[in-house]
């Protein structure tokens, strides 16, 4: 899923350009002691941050990130850094400036959370006249099937089998509401960020990247074809 890896980096931090300016130690300590609703969670992340900096010889006072303690281009919180970080050179994993480690680590994250290579992420849903389906705008569960939706007048534009589990999603656009079906890989994106809009944005950017790459590859192939010499030695004849 290379295009999805690139898309996640784009949506998260604009490819490392916006990673946060808060000192992570201060952010996590503040949330631990001054945010009772989630003090336990952030207290655990604070402990994991100290483990992380000790294990990899990092200065805990110099690391900066988001107001919630997310770090680097991937915006991993400390526990995710410890769980998913991958080193590509045998040294300590560096998810701040080593792009080989960064790409490998997000790939590891997706794999560990059940990403299915080549599997669908989102598909359009075509609504037929007289459709009888209902949608819960707050539900992200894969509690429908392609066949079940078809029986209710909602046709998922996918070649996946009828028994494939999907989530029926409502998205608002300027032209009005549209429906999409989210597959297992969409669920995996939601583990990275639980916002439906986030996961849709990652998918849409990934598709745009794929189209751009295909167009550029096609242009290069066409250019090579045009420039190949003919038997007479004159290009293009």
From TrEMBL:
| Record protein name field | Membrane-bound lytic murein transglycosylase B
List each copy of the Transglycosylase SLT domain by range.
Answer: 2-207
Q: Name one GO biological process term.
A: peptidoglycan catabolic process
Task: List the SUPFAM superfamilies hit by this protein, alphabetically.
Answer: Lysozyme-like (SSF53955)
Record-level Gene Ontology MF annotations: peptidoglycan lytic transglycosylase activity
Q: Per its UniProt record, what InterPro entries does this chain match?
A: Lysozyme-like_dom_sf, MltB-like, SLT_2
